[in-house]
Design brief:
2 domains, two-stranded antiparallel sheet, alpha+beta, 6 helices, five-stranded mixed β-sheet, Heat Shock Protein 90, binds adenosine-5'-diphosphate
Length: about 325
């Protein structure tokens, strides 16, 4: 079996060899062309001596024009070959890297989905097993049932995310309605705070009746996913979130920032890809499938908006969304 080193560097060796071969052939051709030129010149001189004519100057001119033409041909074709080869190398290299990335992503996806499916199923099974095998006190039954119920919620969310992301691949029909965005955010914050009472949330909402034409489910998923991530990717006990909402020039600017772990520059574009999770799945501690930000980005795109991520100061991330206030007909 070929070693990874061999697999990684063999294409580069072949490319370098081909480029070196091109240069070598070009030099050889130039040398041969020079030799032919010198021979033709010597022949022309001999002919002049034999025939005692004075036509050497014209012949020499013709030979020089011929040599110049050949030189141009060698350089021109050499350049075309080299450029074509370099473009080919670049394309192959790009395809190779994409293939590696796709395979890593697939591996990450399988690992995370397997984990996300297996662990709630195992917990529910354990709870049911305990009910069967042991006579439990009422409070114990309640505690176990609550845990199992939470796991079914998690499973349901996972299945919903998978179905939604599959739906998004095809045409997704938004249900556009006139919404009070400020009120919707307030509601989301209230239900989020119930689940995460220790998280400090600050808001900066310029208008308490800010209107937007949008799909309610889409907006709820955008806000809840960004809030959840801001807490999930903060391994410290000091968890803070900030929401900024502003309207300008018929556009809505929504910023959700956290003081969490932050995102490395190299991951900032990738985290919006389907199933992408930064780092390595095997070493990652957090639960997730890499679908949340993909769903967020797709909903923003469906609303003709944009999303970007920046680093927060002194630490954390800022997700900045721009949405048009009104929707053009997208049917
Ligand atoms: P999941 O949370 O299921 O992994 P997401 O699509 O929501 O999927 O996020 C993709 C990746 O982006 C995460 O795995 C995480 O590495 C990174 N990420 C998302 N939000 C944040 C955040 N607020 N802070 C730090 N990293 C984040």
């Amino acid at each position: 079996m070929r070693s990874p080193f061999f697999r990684k560097y063999l294409p580069y060796f072949i490319m370098i060899y081909m480029l070196a071969a091109f240069v070598w052939w070009a030099i050889l051709l130039m040398k041969k062309s020079e030799e032919i030129y010198q021979t033709k010149l010597a022949l022309a001189k001999l002919e002049q001596i034999q025939e005692q004519k004075n036509s050497f100057g014209t012949k020499q001119n013709l030979i020089e024009v011929e040599r110049e033409r050949q030189r141009m041909m060698i350089w021109g074709e050499g350049a075309v070959f080299t450029i074509t080869l370099l473009i080919g190398i670049w394309l192959i290299n790009r395809a190779h890297h994409r293939e590696i990335e796709a395979s890593n992503q697939q591996k990450n996806f399988l690992l995370s989905i397997t984990h996300e499916l297996k662990s709630p199923i195992a917990s529910i099974r354990l709870a049911l097993d305990t009910f069967l095998k042991r006579d439990l006190e009422n409070y114990q039954v309640k505690k176990l049932s609550k845990g199992a119920l939470n796991e079914t919620v998690r499973l349901n969310e996972l299945v919903n995310d998978l179905l939604l992301s599959a739906k998004m691949e095809n045409k997704y029909d938004l249900e556009i309605e006139n919404l009070n965005l400020s009120a919707l955010i307030e509601q989301q914050v209230i239900s989020f705070s119930k689940m995460h009472p220790n998280v400090e949330i600050t808001k900066n909402i310029s208008d308490s009746t800010m209107k937007i034409q949008a799909d309610r489910q889409g907006l709820v998923l955008i806000i809840s996913n960004l809030l959840e991530n801001g807490v999930k990717y903060n391994y410290s006990n000091d968890k803070k979130l900030n929401i900024n909402l502003l309207e300008k020039n018929n556009k809505i600017f929504l910023e959700i920032s956290d003081n969490g772990n932050g995102i490395l520059e190299k991951y900032k574009n990738k985290i919006f890809e389907k199933f992408y999770r930064a780092g390595n799945e095997e070493t990652r501690k957090t639960k997730g499938t890499g679908l949340g930000l993909y769903i967020v980005k797709e909903f923003v795109k469906f609303h003709q908006g944009t999303i970007e991520v920046k680093s927060n100061q002194p630490k954390g991330s800022i997700f900045k969304i721009t949405l048009p206030k009104t929707q053009k007909d997208n049917k």
